[in-house]
Amino acid sequence: MSLRPDDHRRKWDKDEFERIAAERLKAEIEEEERSKKKAPPIKRELLKQRDYKVDLDSKLGKSVVITKNTPTSQSGGYYCNVCDCVVKDSINFLDHINGKKHQRNLGMSMKIERSSLDQVKARFASNKRKLEEKKHEYELDTRLKEAAEEEARLKELRRERRRDKKRKLQETEDPEDGPAQSELAQIMGFSGFGASKK
Fold first, then answer.
1. CB of 73 within 8 A of CB of 83?
2. Are 103 and 111 in contact (CB under 8 A)?
3. Between the CA of residue 43 and those of 1, 13, 36, 116, 159, what are the distances in Å?
4. Which of 33, 50, 89, 191 is 20 to 30 A from residue 129's alpha carbon, by CA?
5. How far apart (Å, rounded) are the C-alpha atoms in residues 25 and 35?
6. Pairwise CA distance, residues 15 & 1, whole Å
7. Is the pLDDT score of 117 beyond 70?
8. Residue 140 near residue 147, CB atoms below 8 Å
């Protein structure tokens, strides 16, 4: 400390604080060594594709009464049973499922398995097969639609031909009755009945 009575500034004992710093550093190094010896690094599974469908629509449009005693799994929002948490909307729920915390609780790391050349070729082949099957189904569907349209066109043509034949028959029969009916209509003062002849 200071020897002069008018010097009120605090003086530090450098040797004392160097000793305290050395002890703290030693304790931190020992703690790191203990933590390394205790837990070997956890080998987590690589990230893989989800094998189930995420249910986002089951509670859509439904109203639920929530009380103080309602369990968290039945409260409003989407419940994650792995992390035991409730997320309020579907977008945040999807973010949570795909997030680091959820994947860690499932026992997966966020690393993806590196694909080999054979796996890539197999995937291309399977995708090509699926595309050909869809194309084949599409061709079959288009053929069926085209056949149905063609049938509809033929039916319409037949109806038109029948109508034309009926019109021609009526036109050939009407001239005999036509003049007499028109004279009668003129005498009575009718110019027509509001419908034109076809």
1. no
2. no
3. 56, 49, 15, 22, 77
4. 50
5. 16
6. 13
7. yes
8. no
